Amino acid sequence: MTNLIEQVNVDQLAEQAIGHYGWLLVAAFVTLLFKDVLFNFVQGILVFWGSNFENDEILYISGRQARVIRLGLTSCTFFLTDRQTKMIVPNSQLKELVVEKKLPTNGGEEYLPKGSEKGPMRIELIDAEDE
Which of 23, 54, 76, 113 has the greatest number of C-beta atoms within 10 Å? Predict the structure, then answer.
C-alpha cells in the first residue's frame, strides 16, 4: 500500500517538474536553433556584400575549376566544370574551402603554362653579331 502511494507521489512530482521547468528545455532548444540560423544569415550577408566572389566568376576549389552560379544569403552554388555537376555550399562552411582565383596578367605573359602546352617552353637566343 505504501509503495502505491509513493508511486503516485513520484508521478505527480514528475508532472509538476515538467510543467514548471519544461519551458526552459523548449526555450534552450529554440535559442540554439535561432543562434545557428542567425549565424548562417550573418555569414550570408558578409559573403553577399563582400567582394570575394562575383557571379559567373571562374575559381579553383581544391584544384578543380568552378564557376560561381549564385550567391545567396544562406548558401553559394558553384558549377564544377570537370564533372559537369553543381555544388551547394552553406556560407558558414566557405571558410573551410581552399579557393584560388586567377589574377590578371597586367599585359605580360602568364606565369604558369597552360595544360595544352607540352614540356618546357622553347627559348631562342639572338646573337648580336649576326645583325
Answer: 76
